[in-house]
Amino acid sequence: MAAVLAYGEDAVLSHRSAAVLWGLLKRDREVVDVSVPGNGGRGRRRGIRLRRSRSLRSHHLTRRRGIPVTTPARTIADLRQAVPPWELRRAIREAEVRGLYIGADVETDRTRSDLERDFLGICRRYRLPAPEVNVELGTYVADFLWRERRLVVETDSYLYHRGAQAFNDDRARDLELRTLGFDVIRLSEDQINEEAEKVAGFLRGVLASRPHRVGPDGS
Fold first, then answer.
1. In the prediction, which pLDDT does 52 show?
2. Mean pLDDT of residues grouped by 10 in the chain (219 residues)?
3. Which helix H or strand E contains 63, and what residues bound it?
4. What SS3 class is residue 212?
5. What pLDDT does residue 89 have?
6. Predicted local distance difference test score (pLDDT) of residue 102
7. How many whole angstroms separate alpha carbon 5 and alpha carbon 20?
8. Residue 133: which of 97, 109, 160 has the closest Cα?
9. What's the pLDDT score for residue 215?
10. Residue 122 has what pLDDT?
């Protein structure tokens, strides 16, 4: 807040600092990004990256936790020129998960992690039928779904699928999905990252062997 106040009433938190405030990126540096409209003559201050913008308008601004900040949509637009592509994708994914509006022109693939994105990349690279991504089925959200083939693929990272509780949660999830008429295939992080061709070949065979089916709910 102090960094914003240092540049007057029309200053706002922006770029990476705004993304951190919105929960889209993790803070990993000490510099604070502050934007001001126009090209005013405010001097620079230590620890603050001042950004002057002639395109900054009132509808790009809001407040979060009492701090003036760019809206999620403006923040994503600013990040396009400020962070690497992989980090921009992460911010977009996180905004989608949090239900933040980031503009109708922002394309998302609905993935929620780098591992899910890597798996979707395998589907595209090896020209597998495109799955639905992060779909609500029962009380769970399936990572990838081929609805007419009644097939679900779950991507298991070490971070979120280790320990007794995660093991039990995964089994409960699989049981409910199978009760709904879906078969479940689980793929590990190593399989996705190191055996892409093998994974693609296996899935191609599974999908080809499964006739189109309609589930008990008619879907």
1. 86
2. 74 93 86 83 75 87 94 93 86 85 73 85 93 89 93 79 66 89 93 95 93 59
3. strand 61-64
4. coil
5. 85
6. 86
7. 18
8. 109
9. 57
10. 94
- Rounded to whole angstroms, the Cα distance separating 8 from 117 reads 41
The SS3 assignment for 73 reads helix
Which secondary structure element, helix H or strand E, spans residue 205, and what is its range? helix 196-209
The 3-class SS string of 4-51 reads HHCCCCCCEECHHHHHHHCCCCCCCCCCEEEEEECCCCCCCCCCEEEE
Residue 47, token pair as written in the block: 């620890």
Backbone angles phi, psi at 66, to 5 degrees: 80, 0
CB 145 within 8 A of CB 151: yes
Tokens representing residue 2 in the block = 């102090």
Any idea how long the chain is?
219
Encoding tokens for residue 116?
């899910």
How is residue 210 annotated by DSSP? S
